[in-house]
Amino acid sequence: MPAAAFARRYASLCRALGAGAGVLVLAACGGGGSGGGGPVAAPVASEPVASEPVASEPAASAPALGEIPAMSDTSRLSFPLDAYDPSPADQRLLERAQDRLAVRCMARYGFEYVPPKRSGGPERPVNSRVFGVVDAEEAARYGYRDPGAASADRPRDPELSAEGRLTLYGERVAPAEMPMSQEEAEREGGSERKVGGKSVPVGGCNRESYLKLYAPKADAVDIMFVFNLKARAKAQGDADARLRRNNEEWAACMKKAGYRATDPMAVVRQLGFEGALDSPAAVAAAKADVACKKKVNLVGVRYTVLAAYQQRLVDQHAATLELAVQQQEDRLEQAADLVG
């Protein structure tokens, strides 16, 4: 998964995990909001998984690949771990349900809370840009700009009093002091801070809404579990000699076209187009990029390598993934009841 696709999925998870200043966040996603006390979600899974992707993580042995197919289209790609992610429609349902739980929590303290509007946009295949721009017509028209990307505008912070912000976000506490399940939160009875004579949940109503939906019991599989497996597979794939060799072939092709870049997943940064994704120069480079990807079968190689590492992790963590599927089904049923 490249940086752009990785960031989009990470942002979605961050919105579910905690909140600060109206935007649900993790400390690892950029910290709490100006209200302070944005919850920090620590793993609650039964199996330890690296919480962040690393630059390179060689696997014990490279998986066998078999024949690598020639591929240039990513719009219909599906990776083994994708089956364990909620669909875009299910993700929207979960977000609405979490908002409903936050509204109910705030109402217990006498606040009429209106959650910020979430950015929307047309649905598109989740892996359409998994290897950057690969469509020649799209590159000729948009360069490196993704025409299907959702708006990155930050939702407006809700207008709340100081007590309202305390109730929504809670006080800033160390991650170790955060309850890891709703069972634990109810057992401990909330924070020392009170509003209207009632103890405010540790992490505020945003934390409570997350726990009630994603970690009602101590055996809840960490919401980041599948994401972390994908991060691990990506790190292992990036270290694979076959993928590195394909990168070198792509870089040699780009050099012949007049561009010096070594990483097809970082080409925008390496060529300096971050602020001019659809400039004439970016369009020209994107066209060369797409042509080189096709010449070296970059999509076929990268997909086959990364899918092999993902499948290995699926096999290694089958029990936890099976539990995650069951818990997600229960969560979606709960969400439908909340929203319906």
Describe the structure.
This protein is mainly α. The chain is built from twelve helices and two strands. It has helices at residues 3-17, 88-108, 136-142, 162-169, 182-188, 204-214, 225-238, 241-256, 267-270, 280-295, 298-316, 318-339, and strands spanning 194-195, 198-199. Strands 1-2 form a two-stranded antiparallel sheet. Helix 7 packs across helix 11 (298-316). The two termini are 34 Å apart.
Question: Which descriptors would you attach to this protein?
Answer:
340 residues; mainly alpha; two-stranded antiparallel sheet; 12 helices; 2 strands; 1% strand
Instruction: Give the biggest sheet.
Output: 2 strands, antiparallel
- Can you write the helix and strand succession as a string? HHHHHEEHHHHHHH
Report the portion of residues in β strands: under 5%
Strand arrangement within the widest β-sheet reads 1-2
- The computed structural class is mainly alpha
Number of helices: 12
Radius of gyration: 22 Å
Low-pLDDT segments:
1-7, 19-56
The residue fraction in helices comes out at: 40-55%
- Shape type: elongated
Number of strands: 2
